[in-house]
Amino acid sequence: MAFFSRALAPVLLIAPLLGLANPLAGQSAPSATAPAVKVDTSAWLYKGSDLPPDPAWSFGTLPNGLRYAVRKNGVPPGQVSIRVRIDAGSLYEQDSERGYAHFIEHLSFRGSQYVPDGEAKRVWQRFGATFGSDSNASTTPTQTLYKLDLPSATPQTLDESLKILSGMMANPTLTDAAVAAERPIVLAERREQPGPQVRLGDAANALFFAGQPLADRSPIGTLKTLEAATGASIKAFHDRWYRPERAVVIISGDVDAATLGQLVVKHFAGWQGHGPDPADPDFGKPDPSKPTSATLVEPGLPPLVMMGVLRPWHFNNDTKIFNQKRMVDTIAAKVLSRRLERRARAGASFVQAGVDLDDRSRSANMTTVLILPVGDQWEQALKDVRAEIADAQKTPPTQAEIDREYADYEVAIRNGVETARVEASAKQADDMAGALDIRETVTAPQNQYDILTDAKAKGMFNPAAVLASTKKIFEGEATRALVNTRTAEKGTAEKLAAALKADVSKLTVKRATQGSVDFSKLPALGAPGTVASREQVAGLPLEQVRFANGVTMLLFPNPDDTGRVFVRVRFGRGYNALPADRPSLGWSGDLALMESGIGTLGQDDLDQLTAGRQLGLDFGLDDDAFSIAALSSPNDYADELRLIASKLAAPRWDAAPVLRAKQAALTAIPGYQSSADGVLSRDLEGLLHDNDPRWRTPDAKAINALTPAAFKAFWAPLLASGPIEVDVFGQVDADAAIAAVAKSFGALPPRAAANAAAPPVRFPAHVATPVTRLHDGPDTQAAAVIAWPTGAGMADSATARQLEVLAQVFSDRLFEKMRQAAGASYSPGVASTWPKGLPGGGRLMAMSQVAPSNVPLFFRLAREIAADLAAHPVSDDELARVKGPLQQLYQRAATSSLFWLRELSGGTTDPTRFEATRRIGRDFGAVTPISLQQTAAKYLVPDKDWTMAVLPRKKPAK
């Protein structure tokens, strides 16, 4: 993709300084010395389908059965995204092999034919890839997917990467020694899984898929089978299922498709399977004789009901009419979900409920209904939702209801067409892998849109058809329900069975008819404002505009960000406006502020107003401002600006969203105590800010004190005060964008400046022993945190970048010691936080989940690493392996307007952000082993660290 010169300007500031060019653009393949191989280049993906093939993809089938799908795509420039899909997951395991598909994923990365033990991560780091985000893998019940996003690929690194991946598939190191070394890491991953969610998932699978393998085939496996695994037993699974006939190599990147195909042939044509290709296992069908209900007591989760209607899954040719019928089913589910949402908004027995359709692991075609009741009213909530379902099965929807859902569906698919030119290679590769997993195809966005509009033209979205679909999606071989309660209650199972059979015919409520709404119904804003000044920001493709009423604007026109316009409106002072000496309602804004309406329009009206448009209201609480943002489009962004301006000018204060938010917040409280992660999410930020109430999670008393009147009294002054900055970044005409802001925000009355000093932000004092909190989850789980105070503000961006690199070096070392060496943790990590708009609060923090016995080990290793970084410079190789991927991350991000929005937003009130952005390349270029050591010595001071441990509460003896 060739970038428009003006949009490219900021990228050019970074790339040369980092030494990051686009090495593959315009280059041909590394010389491929592959033997002559006859490749079948027919489009294997579309066999049995009448959908138009996507011409961007090229296909091939090798004589050994391996298939590939490759395409050229230059988003982001220079990147190549590779996926290797193995058609085998946990459903392919025998009882004694549970967890083996996932175990092989680990072992393949650990060592293989072309990479010594533990070196794959370092090799790809040297190629600029970040472990965990750029190189990773996942195992599901039906597939194992290996992922590599190779930034700024060269012919040599691409060639070497495919060679390594071929060795990982065909010949991973599956010895007893490798299994023994990796087993603690796999067990740590199993231990660190979020317990309540895992138990809910296991209970749901056991009920819904009773009698089928999926009922008890979690990819993580069992403690018994993992501990019993040997090199030989895992190799037997590998040899059975890792075969070229079951492998697909998917590549999308900034390289000619022919070159990519040649490289696949070169490295994968010689792979041969062991023995005959086995038949696929039988995943079974829903068994109507199995129980229809089950109960779970999980205090760490809110009360909820999951209801499922199951039908046998079977393969369907991915044809046009198949997709169109499924689109009608989707509209039927959306109509019902909106009815449930409107009932919840008005005040119902449930906080939330929705309908979803899914082909679940090729084991069942399933309609799922998820219900979150108000408090413990799960019986009534289930009955009320069933009443809505029964009514939808009995009475056709109105054409207006159908058109409302079609409008949103149509705009989502149309957006895919409009933004196809900037679709990332990684997404294209992932979409292809996802389609293969469910035995479907992919087609060009325009083709998908044509299928939808053809269905519309044929009149398929009509009341009778949607009624028929509603009946169909709630018919099946079995209907089952699971309820979770926080405490064991006598008779729960009987109550659930009764609620599933109860007569609900009298529980249907009369729905209000939604009237038509257009932008004329929004409050009038006054005459358009005038531009007081307009200037180019030096060294950046950015304009700064000031209007006569004091509103400022940052304008970043990027014609190559096709179909996308990022809008962000900053107002007020954010955290700096909240009281630091007493609790406030700052926590409640994200839950109810945008849902409380505008002028005379409630949330249902606003939904109608925005139907079929790329419009939204996303509230944010930032360091030094509140924000309302949306991803809009060239056609819609002017109305987006009008919508946000109206929200600030004439906010509505409906009570129902506040009461609903209150219930949602109360529902979350018990879950915090259920795991080490939950305790951290509740307590850590407050503790790291020395118990500043702005960052403390509200308790039940504070939440119960929330009233609609108190909500309005707190937020109304904040919406009406402080400066406004409007940021418009993306595919816009500059003059038109300025005119749109003049008509919206320029028309607002002047606002008083915010001159109050920002309250100080404190870091907690050093503690000799860790601050300790207890959780009520599994006694095998604990968490440990160590943090050092740093700084804040973009005036010292050079130090912020030094700390960013230092955190990655620290994280890499901690990963090596805690995971690879000790097997004590699956996911230790280190991050640097450097607030842009606060007077303090920066920190470098290391955190890990561990077994309780390994908490002291974490603190010892973290402090040893910190001391060594302060005492000795890192090697050139270590710095390059960390700095390279970080620089690549910035370079890739810089191809999107969103990156520049994040960096530059707030610059009209804090111009240091402009200079910090101009300096990104120079700041990273200035990071050296010596400067990194100096930074570590300055900040990683032993008597300034703060530590925390979250340990399991001792259970009383039975």
Task: Give me the secondary-structure topology.
Elements: H1 5-18, E1 58-61, E2 67-72, E3 80-86, H2 100-110, H3 120-126, E4 135-139, E5 144-150, H4 155-170, H5 176-191, H6 195-208, H7 223-228, H8 231-241, E6 247-253, H9 257-268, E7 293-297, E8 304-311, H10 320-345, E9 350-360, E10 364-373, H11 378-394, H12 399-418, H13 425-437, H14 445-457, H15 463-473, E11 478-485, H16 492-501, E12 531-536, E13 543-547, E14 552-557, E15 565-571, H17 589-592, H18 603-609, E16 618-621, E17 626-632, H19 637-649, H20 655-672, H21 676-688, H22 700-704, H23 708-720, E18 724-730, H24 734-743, E19 771-775, E20 782-789, H25 797-821, E21 829-833, E22 843-850, H26 855-871, H27 876-893, H28 897-904, H29 912-918, H30 920-925, H31 929-939, E23 946-952
Parallel strand pairs: 2-6, 7-11, 14-18, 19-23
Antiparallel strand pairs: 1-2, 3-5, 3-6, 4-5, 8-10, 8-11, 9-10, 12-13, 13-14, 15-17, 15-18, 16-17, 20-22, 20-23, 21-22
Helix pairs in contact: 2-5, 3-27, 4-9, 10-12, 10-15, 11-15, 11-16, 12-14, 19-24, 25-26, 25-27, 25-31, 26-31
